[in-house]
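[SOLVED] Need 3D model of a two-part complex

Original post:
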Amino acid sequence: MSIKGKAAISGFAEMAPQKGAGDITPLGIIANMAREAIADAGLEKSDIDGLLTGWALSDYSVLWPSVVADYLQIRPAYFNQVELGGASAAGMVWRAAAAIEAGMCNTVLCVVGDRRARARQMPPFPSIEAEFDAPYGLIAANPGYALIAQRHKYEYGTTAEQMAKVAVDQRKSACQNPSALFGNKEIDIDDVLNSRMIVDPLHLLEIVSPCTGGGAFIVTGAERAKDGPHKPVVLLGAGEAGGHSSITHARSLTTSLVKPAAEAAFRMAEVSPQDMDFAQPYDCYTITVIVTLEDAGFCEKGDGGRFVADHDLSYAGDFPCNTHGGQLSFGQPGLAGGMSHVIEGARQLMGRGGGRQVRDAAIGYVNGNGGIMAEQCSLVLGV
Amino acid sequence: MGDYTKPLPHPNDVSQPFWDAAKRHELQIQRCNACGTSIFYPREACSECLAADLIWIPASGKGRLYSYTIAQAPTHPAFADDVPYVIAIIELEEGPHITTNLVGCQPDQVRIGMPVVASFEDVNAETTLVKFRPA
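Solution:
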């Protein structure tokens, strides 16, 4: 049994990220996204019989899926929380498809929303990291990705300019995205390298900005999706991988779990990276994109820096990558940051990319990444 | 030393021997009696064979710098006065990796692969952190 071709994204909704906390709660965002996504798919609330959601950093509790189901007053026959950090949204796509194929439900609402969290509102980090990483300042994501970047520079000669190029090209696409948090002004490599060094070698403009936002998409059976108003975006392949928590104990800093996840996704879809019309790789940092493109097979291992330098990653370029601007320019509203890559993939394939539409986009790669490269979920989507 | 405000470890029954050793300025890790694997962080079962048969052994304290970052902005407010400081992963001679700070080394002298040795810092009356310095 395979879920290849069995389910499709039939609609979506996305909130424009806001810099401040705003006056809306995560549940309020989730309700807005649910209403808009259901309407976008041409459905009624009563059509929803599956629910996948993920935590909100700013409203964290156990039994969150029931909190959401109660708030939305839906009665799912299949529901759960996907807890894969930034990979949660990508992970929802294949889980929804699997639940539909298994006959548990017909139409799954996948929804997340979060308000810019203050540190004191954050849920606890794993106790082992609190005990053995935090006392030395290895706290949250910034230094973890800096450790990866430094080792990548050492092993492969990746340069600061190459990493900066990711932020520069993605910004070009963000300037065509009215929802992007940083879509007003293009930047160049000097802007990135002259921005404040935060955790060497990562500069401020190589690091995502937390914000308030949310997103939702609807997954339904591939046949059923044809009744909707949009071209169904079919799940052709999915792969997932994990195996570490603290980055200190990852088996490698530079060859990531994207490799098995992407290999599985391409194998299921029976296509290769070179068949993709675009890539939407999770980009919490510039180095994340370089490592992901290497491990997904878009270039040889270690050539990621040269690859991003040699290609135009903008929506109009020869390798369209994070065509919404990526989270670096779009913003990172909690788990909705990772959802932005799924939604942008669907948007492009539906032909709804507006000023940043990738011409003739028919098949694309999406990757979700959680923690410090700890959770990976790769998808191949097509129309 | 009473006003130490940075995050502190809160040892549990499993990890207490590690911190007790650190307080004596000794680095100890675990070894699996069943398969011989050297283990860090402290566990109740082997990370390779899952045998619940681990013993504490002294580590040499020697290792090499596996990767590092120089924090130019504090990664936690309590580290503000330390900027710039070096967060590092050390590959211990026995194999396991450990998170630490590299001390006694100018940031521009830090090199991946450099030999390092454990250096113990008594941060308050109860706790000694295991840091590393150039060997």
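Edit: Chain A has 13 helices and eleven strands.
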